[in-house]
Design brief:
Length: about 300
């Protein structure tokens, strides 16, 4: 079985203090979950997916769409079952009506979930464990450890799930079970069971390793700090903060006038989305600048 190579090269945020990466990732996550508006969600997903291509390569990023698009479809189809609201009726099943507005709201919810997962995958590459421990290891080591483990949890689950599926496809003894009626569902249950068992076993090994290394034995944990906050980092935070504040002001106005129910209306002018588009494109611009600098 051929192993999939995961790109572990440098990122554009490596030239800055980890505080810059943390502030940007936090602002992107909060903005994505707070701005429940179709245009803002599309901008968020497009920016996160494009930067995912830069970080992990186009092949791995496109493969992630294999579960992100079905997620959006499932949430979009499930929302009308629980919220039959709207004014544009599409069809009826018995006495229950299904409306366009309910499908649109569900699609936005699914797109928000897919964007959050993509942002977490990007954050696991941008914010490595040593950066998080450098930020929180001195005064809040437990919080730093929890953040580093949480950020890498989603991409680790996806990677392990792909490995389990590849092993099952390569195992000839598992093919008859998968070929029977209902074998696909049985294969999914088996993969989920193996994934949960693998994760729990890994957590036990991690806890034993932390105990053996003396985690929590002292009153204060020391860390090796190799990051220094420079003037360039302050300028980067200031520029990103200005873009974020302008984007928040524009988003409050745009989301305030937008409505899903009873009819979809109130889309803001195109120029009101430019500040947030510039904020989302910051990592792409930095990556393009770094590549242009080192291009022969």
């Amino acid at each position: 079985m051929r192993q999939r190579r995961v790109d572990a090269g440098p990122t554009a945020f490596d030239a800055f203090h980890p505080m810059v990466s943390l502030c940007y990732v936090t602002a992107a996550l909060v903005f994505c979950m707070a701005a429940m508006q179709p245009v803002y969600l599309l901008i968020s997903f497009a920016g996160a997916f494009a930067y995912g291509i830069v970080l992990r390569g186009p092949r791995i990023a496109v493969r992630s769409l294999a579960w992100q698009l079905p997620l959006v479809a499932v949430v979009a189809l499930a929302n009308p079952l629980f919220s039959a609201s709207g004014s544009t009726e599409l069809f009826r099943i018995g006495s229950r009506a299904f409306y366009l507005e309910s499908f649109a709201f569900g699609s936005c919810m699914g797109l928000m979930l897919a964007t959050v997962f993509t942002l977490f995958s990007n954050a696991s590459r941008v914010l490595s464990s040593d950066k998080i421990m450098a930020l929180f290891g001195g005064f809040a080591p437990t919080i730093g450890l929890m953040l580093s483990m949480t950020i890498r949890l989603v991409p680790q689950f996806v990677r392990r799930g792909s490995d389990i599926d590849a092993v099952q496809r390569a195992c000839t003894a598992a093919r008859p079970a998968c070929a029977e009626k209902g074998g696909t569902r049985l294969g999914y249950l088996r993969s989920a069971s193996v994934l949960m068992g693998w994760s729990m076993e890994d957590s036990l090994e991690t806890a034993a390793a932390m105990k053996a290394k003396g985690w929590g034995a002292g009153s204060r944990r020391t860390t090796y700090r190799r990051f220094r906050f420079r003037r360039l980092d302050a300028l980067a935070l200031a520029w990103g903060g200005v873009l974020a504040l302008v984007s928040v002001a524009a988003a409050v106005a745009a989301c305030g006038q937008f409505r899903f129910y009873p009819i979809i209306e109130g889309v803001a002018p195109w120029w009101s989305y430019l500040p947030y588009a510039a904020f989302v494109a910051l990592p792409l611009a930095m990556s393009a600048k770094e590549r242009a600098r080192w291009r022969p």
